[in-house]
């Protein structure tokens, strides 16, 4: 229960800490339940999109849905994506990259990166019929987080716990936790693909896995590890690749 509450507290703005005191050690294992947080954010984004699409065109409906998601999560992953673009775009050495990513100010690379991320994902999803876009989000959010979560299994943390923004270093997953993470991430995707006859989602699911793997190799080369910003950036870029691939397969 503590890990569940820690996961929702960490990845959303839900004030569950007011209801129960959560041990600090519980936050070290939140990444293995990250896809479960994706269930919540995916359902919220899907519900808002479908409700808005009843009275609005697809484009503003998708924009409102993602705005609500950003508010609900505190733009946690978007902050990581901006820091990722700033750090790896402006840094020329491992030390400098880590310094830039830790800086709370956003730079040119971060602004451009976030702008293009939102233009792409909103533009892609608004090209799909709203009910298909909603199901793509529902399937893609947890699966992308599952793929991004593997970063902690392949790389060490690039800083010390004292240098981390949240003063926490994630614990590498045990075999049982890894299986649980995979089930949590794949379950919505399999359910949508089977019950809605969206077989193309199985092919689209390869995109987040490939993007996450590529970024893990990139992080290993550039900073010999990962940071929390790297996790957030990997999740969003993996989800973007899922949506783009799903649109391309729908247009065939």
Structure description:
The relative contact order is 0.15. The protein has 252 residues and is mainly alpha-helical. The chain has helices at residues 2-11, 34-53, 58-73, 76-90, 94-102, 108-126, 130-149, 151-154, 175-195, 200-204, 206-223, 228-250. It is globular, with a radius of gyration of 17 Å. Helix content is 71%, strand content 0%.
Low-confidence stretches: none
The helix content, as a percent range, equals over 70%
Average of per-residue pLDDT values: 92
- How are helices and strands ordered from N to C? HHHHHHHHHHHH
Classify the secondary structure makeup into a structural class.
mainly alpha
Radius of gyration: 17 Å
SS summary, helix count: 12
List keywords for this structure.
252 residues, mainly alpha
Could you give the topology of this structure?
Layout: H1 2-11, H2 34-53, H3 58-73, H4 76-90, H5 94-102, H6 108-126, H7 130-149, H8 151-154, H9 175-195, H10 200-204, H11 206-223, H12 228-250
Helix pairs in contact: 2-3, 2-7, 2-9, 3-6, 4-5, 4-6, 4-12, 6-12, 7-9, 7-11, 7-12, 11-12
Give a quick precis of the structure.
This protein has helices at residues 2-11, 34-53, 58-73, 76-90, 94-102, 108-126, 130-149, 151-154, 175-195, 200-204, 206-223, 228-250. The chain has 252 residues and is an all-alpha fold.
